[in-house]
Specification:
Blueprint: E1 20-25, E2 30-35, E3 45-49, E4 55-59, E5 66-68, E6 74-76, H1 77-80, E7 85-90, H2 97-116, E8 121-126, H3 134-142, E9 149-151, H4 155-164, E10 169-175, E11 178-183, E12 187-190, E13 196-200, H5 206-221
Parallel strand pairs: 7-8, 8-9
Antiparallel strand pairs: 1-2, 3-4, 5-6, 7-12, 10-11, 12-13
Helix pairs in contact: 2-5
Length: 222
C-alpha cells in the first residue's frame, strides 16, 4: 500500500541539494521537487482496495536502499523486513522541528511497548550525510532513545533513497560549511513487507500517533 495524505496534508516532496522546480502529477495529489538535470524517477502505482470493494491506484512510494548504521554496518530494506517500522528523515543539526520529531518517535516506541506490548523498529535517516557521520548519529540519537537506528551513507545513496520515498530536502542559508536543510517532516509507518501504510505529519502528538499506528496494525491483522 502507498502512503495516503492524512488530514489534507501534502504527502511528500523530494528535492536535490541544487536549485529545484516543481512538478505536479495529475490525479495523485503529489508534488515532487526535482533537480534541473535529473527528475525524480516515475514510480508507477499500487492498486488498493477501498472499504466498499472498489479498486484505486495510489502512487508507489519507497524502494530499495543501501546505507550504513551507527556501527558502520551495511543496512538495506531487507534488514527491516519482518518488523513494523517507523521511519523519519531528518538531520542532527536541525534547530527546531527535527528534535521535537525525534523526541516524539522516542515517546511513541515507549507508549507502544508499555501500553500495547507492541514493538516497532524506529529508523532515523539523515538527509545531511556530509555532517551526519555514524558517530554523530549515535551521539545525537542516544540523547533520545538508544533503540533508534540511525542511517547515513554517501550523498548519492541518500539522495536516491529520498527520491524513492518522495522526501523533500534542500540546503538553505549557506555560509561556507554552515547551513540549514529545508525538508519535509513526515513519519512513515511501514508494515513487515516494507510497504508504507501511512504518513504522519507534525500535527500528531505521541499519543495520537501511537493510537493511529495500532489502528493500522489491527487492520493488517484482520
Amino acid at each position: 500500500m502507498s502512503c495516503i495524505p492524512d488530514h489534507g496534508e501534502i504527502m511528500l516532496l523530494y528535492a536535490d541539494l541544487r536549485p529545484t522546480a516543481v512538478l505536479a502529477i495529475a490525479g495523485a495529489g503529489l508534488l515532487i521537487h526535482y533537480n534541473d538535470e535529473k527528475r525524480a524517477i516515475p514510480k508507477g502505482s499500487h492498486q488498493q482496495t477501498n472499504s466498499d470493494g472498489s479498486k484505486v491506484n495510489r502512487p508507489a512510494i519507497g524502494g530499495p536502499f543501501k546505507l550504513f548504521d551507527m556501527e558502520k554496518n551495511l543496512v538495506t530494506e531487507s534488514n527491516l523486513r519482518g518488523n513494523w517500522t517507523l521511519m523519519y528523515f531528518g538531520y542532527t543539526s536541525s534547530p527546531d522541528v527535527g528534535p521535537e520529531e525525534v523526541k516524539k518517535m522516542a515517546e511513541v516506541i515507549q507508549i507502544l511497548e508499555s501500553e500495547h506490548n507492541f514493538k516497532i523498529t524506529p529508523v532515523f535517516v539523515t538527509i545531511d550525510p556530509q555532517r551526519d557521520s555514524p558517530a554523530q548519529l549515535k551521539a545525537y540519537l542516544g540523547e533520545f532513545d538508544s533503540r533508534i537506528i540511525g542511517l547515513t551513507g554517501p550523498i548519492a545513496a541518500v539522495r536516491q533513497m529520498a527520491q524513492e520515498y518522495r522526501v523533500y530536502f534542500k540546503k538553505v542559508d549557506e555560509e561556507g560549511q554552515d547551513y540549514l536543510v529545508e525538508c519535509s517532516h513526515n513519519m512513515y509507518l511501514l508494515d513487515p513487507n516494507m510497504e508504507i501504510l501511512r504518513c504522519f505529519g507534525v500535527e500528531y502528538d505521541a499519543l495520537q500517533l501511537s493510537n493511529a499506528i495500532m489502528m493500522e496494525v489491527k487492520k493488517a491483522s484482520k
